[in-house]
Specification:
The protein is of the alpha/beta class. The protein contains nine helices and 15 strands. 32% of the residues are buried.
């Protein structure tokens, strides 16, 4: 008969709290700052999707005295999520623990930080693959991705790349704000930028000219958001080593040279549209109830004379409203 192990009946709360602190303290990533994080009781389940055509159509009619009221309704479909487990472990052997200098004596905290950082990079990479990608969004004026070009735009889906001083990023972005609003009845609230895109926008003469009379005359994310009428502008600075293990390191920004304009509600709820959601399963003991941070386990491997520390998180990144987003690819060179 199988018996529960120590790690099954006890999860180190102190180390879990430490991981949450590392998660909340990082502003280089945007994967948990854009779309609402939904804690869920089941690892996989269904959720309801309301038909956009019904919610944006008015069937209300003038009603004459004694006449029957007009009857209407709406259609509902279902979609599914499944929270996959992302995990990493680290072993601390007894000789290493015994020989550690005082400056390196907190090996458990070091392991939690290393595991948390690795899972954070994985989360940002997966978030970018899901949301910050071509062929995902159809809220743009061309119903396809907006593509930056070095030469002047030649079709409705092209724009002059924003590293060019002659480009018009404010007009480009405002045009797609109007497109998403026209198609969905929801004005976009958030602009997500790769670090290279932000660098060029912050120095763009058109933007600098519009803010030159502000207090400091320096472009910030909040100031750009105010200029565009958005609730937030978020920049992903996360880098990752794409080189092979043991080989030459190859560093690059995860979010590349693109931008995503999207509608995000202030809080999730029934009949509340959103471009995307992050579903996090919180059913495992030791998982933060709000879905942020990771579950930490620490247990003894006597056969290896080691203590093992594991970190894991169950989550699913889900596009739930493709028309609530417009994607700018190759926004800069």
């Amino acid at each position: 008969m199988a018996n529960p192990t120590v790690s099954d009946v006890h999860v180190s709360a102190a180390l879990s709290d430490l991981s949450v602190a590392y998660f909340n303290g990082d502003k280089n990533t945007i994967y948990d700052r854009v779309f609402p994080v939904i804690p869920v009781r089941k690892q996989g389940d269904k959720f309801y999707v309301y038909e956009r055509k019904d919610t944006l159509r008015s069937d209300a009619k003038y009603r004459a005295p004694g006449a029957e009221v007009e009857i209407s309704g709406w259609r509902v479909s279902t979609d599914t999520y499944f929270a996959e487990r992302v995990a990493l472990g680290h072993d601390i052997d007894d000789p290493t623990r015994a020989n550690a200098d005082p400056a390196l004596a907190n090996l458990d905290a070091d392991a939690v930080q290393y595991i948390t950082e690795s899972i954070r990079i994985k989360n940002e990479t997966d978030w970018v693959s899901t949301f910050f990608a071509t062929g995902v969004w159809d809220g743009a004026s061309s119903s396809t991705d907006m593509t930056g070009q070095a030469a002047p735009a030649s079709t409705t889906s092209n724009f002059r790349q924003w590293n060019d001083a002659a480009s018009t990023p404010i007009e480009d972005i405002r045009g797609e704000i109007m497109s998403v609003a026209e198609k969905t009845g929801r004005k976009p609230t958030c602009l997500c930028l790769g670090a290279e895109v932000w660098r060029h926008l912050a120095d763009h003469p058109d933007i600098l000219d519009r803010i030159k009379y502000t207090e400091r005359g320096v472009v910030t994310e909040d100031l750009l958001g105010s200029l565009l009428g958005l609730d937030s502008v978020l920049v992903s600075y996360q880098t990752s080593n794409e080189g092979a293990e043991g080989g030459t390191a190859s560093y690059d920004f995860v979010a590349s040279k693109a931008a995503l304009l999207c509608f995000v509600p202030k809080s999730p709820g029934l009949r509340t549209p959103s471009a995307g959601y992050t579903f996090v399963w919180t059913g495992m003991a030791g998982t933060p109830a709000d879905g942020r941070g990771i579950r930490i386990k620490r247990y003894r491997l006597e056969r290896n004379e080691s203590d093992r520390i594991e970190g894991e998180q169950y989550r699913d990144y889900k596009v739930v409203g493709a028309s609530l987003g417009a994607f700018f690819t190759s926004a800069v060179v």
